[in-house]
Amino acid sequence: MIDFYTAATPNGYKVSIMLEECGLDYTPHFIDLSSQAQKSPEFLAINPNGRIPAIVDDGFPIFESGAILLWLAEKTGKFLPAEAKARSTATQWLMWQMGGLGPMMGQLNVFKRYFPEHIPAAIDRYERETYRLFGVMEARLATSPYLAGDDYTIADIACWPWVRAHEWPGLTLDNHPLLKAWEAKIGDREAVKRGLQVPPRPELTGDAKQAFVEKARTILA
């Protein structure tokens, strides 16, 4: 049995989607980030970096979402090619997400949504870089149906929750039609739909949106 520690974030959904896609049995544990539960001694014993997601698979703790995706792919033999070059291609796109797409969109969210001061230069920097990365994906999808080639892999699973969340920092996919179609295609997968309910996605409109932003600011403080 796998114990899965998560919250409603793109990185958390990467792992819940993978667990659902692989058909694995797991027990979810929802971490209240606003109460700093991820900094508790019990959680730090699982992830010394104090971030979600993390899993414990038969007593073995694994943190970092990309590392978890690799572990689950190797455990099940799914969503990671066996052939060396194809496997490397999928891994390259996974690392690309972890080193680029996630951090850049994360910083855009911080400066555009959560930071108490409005710093136009920072917002412009991260918005431009995120759109550049969208362009990288658009170009790739002009040559293959999925990021790593002909098959759906952990590369797509890693990138999709971040692309799906583009509206939160006020971005659009209208200038990236292939990326927009890819986002919709993956979103139609039944396992992806199930994964997005672990935990259920919050409806962020009106007062609920402002309350979420205020809570996020306290986490970042």
Q: What this model shows, in words?
A:
Helix content is 57%, strand content 8%. It has 221 residues and is an alpha+beta fold. The protein has a 4-stranded mixed β-sheet with strand order 2-1-3-4, with helices on one face. The longest helix is centred in the middle third of the chain and has 31 residues, at 84-114. The mean pLDDT is 93.
Order of strands in the sheet with the most strands? 2-1-3-4
Bulk shape: globular
**N-to-C CA distance:** 36 Å
* Structural class estimated from helices and strands: alpha+beta
Cα-atom radius of gyration? 17 Å
How can the largest sheet be summarized?
4 strands, mixed
Instruction: Return the string of H and E elements.
Output: EHEHEEHHHHHHH
Q: What portion of residues belong to β-strands? A: 5-15%
Number of helices: 9
Uncertain runs with pLDDT below 50, 5 residues or more? none
**Helix share of residues?**
55-70%
Task: Please tell me the overall pLDDT.
Answer: 93
Number of strands: 4
Secondary structure blueprint with pairings:
Blueprint: E1 2-6, H1 10-22, E2 26-30, H2 41-44, E3 54-57, E4 60-63, H3 65-76, H4 84-114, H5 120-141, H6 154-164, H7 177-187, H8 190-195, H9 206-220
In brief, what are we looking at here?
This protein has 221 residues and is of the alpha+beta class. The chain has helices spanning 10-22, 41-44, 65-76, 84-114, 120-141, 154-164, 177-187, 190-195, 206-220, and strands at 2-6, 26-30, 54-57, 60-63. Strands 2-1-3-4 form a four-stranded mixed β-sheet, with helices on one face.
